[in-house]
Amino acid sequence: GQPVLDLSYTEDSTALADANFVLTRTGDVVEANDGRGSPIAQEKLHTMLALAQQGVAHLCDLQNQAIQAQ
Asked: What global pTM score does this model have?
């Protein structure tokens, strides 16, 4: 399947893999875990991590915009 961010419950419950990442603002990994308890190929894990890092960067940008707008 294709890695995506922020799945709905229905999508998440049928996903082949589920990875959860806690990242710093700079994209460093604080915590990572597989919500399914099954192996994830290293290439797939790297792809999911890169997607998570993009998502965190986007959220940080939105937060900065909201702060500057006040």
From this structure: 0.84
